[in-house]
Amino acid sequence: MTTAREVWDAGLQPERTSLAWQRTALTLLGVGLLIPKLAWAVLDVWTLVPAGLVVAVAISVLVAGHRRYRATHEVLTTGDGHLRDGSLPLLVAVALLVIALLALGLLIASAIG
Q1: Are 94 and 57 in contact (CB under 8 A)?
Q2: Which ranges of the chain have pLDDT less than 70?
Q3: Cβ pair 25, 56 in contact under 8 A
Q4: Cβ atoms of 51 and 36 closer than 8 Å
C-alpha cells in the first residue's frame, strides 16, 4: 500500500510555481517588446517608456521568481529560512495595470485622431 509520504514530493510544488513565474516573466517580456511596434504610430518615442518599464518588470519577475523558488525549496528541505511575501504578485499586477492603461490610452487616441 502506498502512503501519503511516498506520493508527496516536497520539491514539485515550488518547481511548478517557479515555472509559472518564468512563463509569466517571458510573457511580460514579449509584451514589453511588442509595445513599441503596436503603439509607435500614436505615441512615437514615448512608447519606449512603458515598454522599458514592462521589460524591467519582466526581468525583475524572472529574478524574484528564482529567488522565491530557492527560498521555498530551502524551507521545505531544511526547515530553515522564511517564505517570501506577496511582493511578486503585486509587481505583476502593477505591470498589468501599466499595460492596460497604455491600451486604454491607445484606444482613446485612435478614436480621437
Answers
A1: yes
A2: 1-11
A3: no
A4: yes
Q: Cell triple for residue 92?
A: 505583476
Q: In whole angstroms, what is the distance from residue 19 CA to residue 89 CA?
A: 14
Predicted pLDDT at 1? 55
Radius of gyration, alpha carbons of the chain: 19
CA distances from 10 to 28, 63, 71, 78 (A): 29, 22, 13, 11
The C-alpha angle 38, 43, 44, rounded to 5 degrees, equals 90
Q: Name the one residue in this structure whose C-alpha cell is 515555472.
A: 19
First-to-last alpha carbon distance for the chain, in angstroms, is 70
What are the cell numbers at 4? 501519503
Contact 72, 17 (CB under 8 A): yes
Torsion of CA 87, 98, 40, 49, to 10 degrees: -60
